[in-house]
Amino acid sequence: MSDITPPPRPRRTPDLGGLSRTVLFFALAVSALLVGVAALLMGIAWLDLVDNTRSDW
After folding, report:
1. 3, 37, 47, 53: which sits with the fewest CB atoms below 10 Å from its CB?
2. What are the φ/ψ torsions at residue 10 (nearest 5 degrees)?
3. Is 29 exposed, middle or buried (0-12, 13-18, 19+ CB in 10 A)?
4. What are the start-end ranges of the E strands in the chain?
5. Which ranges carry the Lytic murein transglycosylase D lipid attachment domain (predicted)?
6. Does the pLDDT at position 50 exceed 70?
7. Rounded Cα gap, residues 39 and 9, in angstroms
8. Any idea of the CA torsion for 53, 54, 56, 57, to the nearest 10 degrees?
């Protein structure tokens, strides 16, 4: 009898394609939200500055 061993199984790496896409989407959404909040704060500060200059004239 000859000893026949099965070939070694290839290691299966987990498929992270969907997970990385989800993480990328959430990172993009959070960064867009932060940019929107920063733009809103700058707009409020700009309007306040313009209002202060108008009242000083």
Report:
1. 3
2. -70, 140
3. exposed
4. none
5. 7-36
6. yes
7. 54
8. 120
